[in-house]
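To illustrate the input format used throughout this study, we show a single complete record. The first block contains the structure-token representation of the backbone; no residue identities are included at this stage. The design step must infer an amino acid for every position from geometry alone.
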């Protein structure tokens, strides 16, 4: 592990101090021969089980510092579940009420987690459980209506650049945990916050890292300009994320959802890394990049969230 004994003895003021400092582990069994080393950042060690705790805290504290969010106000956001859980968690600790707009396209575990943490939940019905641009636009429209109340702060994760600050810390952690150059980094994008944050940290450290954006092959909006439907939660929203800046990545690639699911199961059963489909997609992309870069190089990917969020779905059914 990458914790010093003194770190483990430190006392936290509250559970918000438990966000971050997640483990980074090397893949040993599922990588092919003659390829680069692959390290995976286990973001499900965050309090609500995903990387989104980082951005939730960054958005709330950013709003507090700007005077946009004050005690007595309510917070609202649209979310497939992980950002919503992170915001529900942060709001519960800081004393804000939280209202989230979500959909039946997302897992029951995620919806239940948000309400368990105190969120008021509105559900927008999907077309057969598929994530599409139309569904996201309906969620945005409903959230904008709620946010008309002047006593409500809309965190607006699709446009809020404060969230990148939370993920830049993730990038700094990776740099501290690895004592070798980082030659490649792959990340599937929803808001594009984690890709942007990690990329910023790597560039500031003068790393010559190849940054690759990943998206589902059935909704290749960044690679081809065409949107479609898929079932990989948290990514592939059907439009190019506003926060994604071209200068912070080198290329965009698609990954077949079937392969992403197969890799997710392999990670659980052979590496002990229990994540969701987006984690499988990130590692699938990392494997392809590692084969191209070859031995002696290092590639990093993110395990976005916990597989516990997907047990009611088909990902681990077999």
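Output of the design step:
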């Amino acid at each position: 592990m990458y914790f010093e004994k003194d770190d483990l003895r430190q006392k936290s003021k509250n559970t918000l101090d438990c966000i971050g400092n997640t483990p980074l582990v090397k893949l040993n069994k599922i990588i092919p021969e003659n390829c680069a080393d692959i390290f995976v950042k286990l973001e499900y060690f965050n309090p609500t089980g995903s990387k989104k705790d980082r951005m939730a805290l960054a958005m709330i504290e950013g709003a507090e510092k700007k005077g946009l969010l004050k005690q007595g106000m309510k917070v609202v956001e649209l979310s497939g579940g992980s950002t919503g859980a992170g915001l529900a968690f942060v709001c519960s600790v800081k004393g804000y009420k939280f209202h989230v707009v979500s959909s039946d396209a997302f897992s029951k575990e995620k919806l239940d987690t948000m309400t368990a943490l105190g969120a008021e939940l509105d559900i927008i019905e999907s077309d057969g459980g598929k994530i599409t641009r139309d569904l996201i636009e309906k969620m945005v429209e409903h959230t904008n209506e709620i946010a008309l109340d002047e006593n409500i702060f809309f965190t607006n994760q699709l446009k809020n650049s404060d969230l990148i600050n939370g993920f830049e810390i993730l990038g700094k952690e990776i740099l501290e945990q690895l004592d070798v150059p980082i030659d490649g980094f792959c990340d599937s994008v929803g808001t594009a916050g984690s890709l942007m944050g990690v990329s910023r940290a790597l560039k500031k450290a003068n790393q010559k890292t190849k940054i690759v954006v990943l998206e589902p092959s059935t909704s290749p909006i960044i690679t081809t300009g065409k949107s479609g439907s898929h079932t990989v939660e948290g990514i592939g929203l059907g439009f190019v994320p506003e926060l994604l800046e071209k200068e912070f990545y080198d290329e965009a690639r698609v990954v077949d959802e079937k392969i992403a699911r197969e890799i997710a199961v392999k990670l659980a059963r052979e590496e002990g890394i229990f994540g969701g489909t987006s984690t499988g997609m990130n590692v699938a992309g990392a494997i392809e990049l590692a084969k191209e870069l070859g031995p002696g190089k290092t590639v990093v990917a993110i395990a976005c969230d916990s597989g516990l969020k997907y047990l009611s779905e088909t990902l681990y059914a077999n």
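Structural context for interpreting the output: Confidence is low (pLDDT under 50) at residues 1-6. Strands lie at 24-26, 37-42, 74-78, 97-103, 120-124, 152-154, 184-188, 210-216, 251-255, 298-303.
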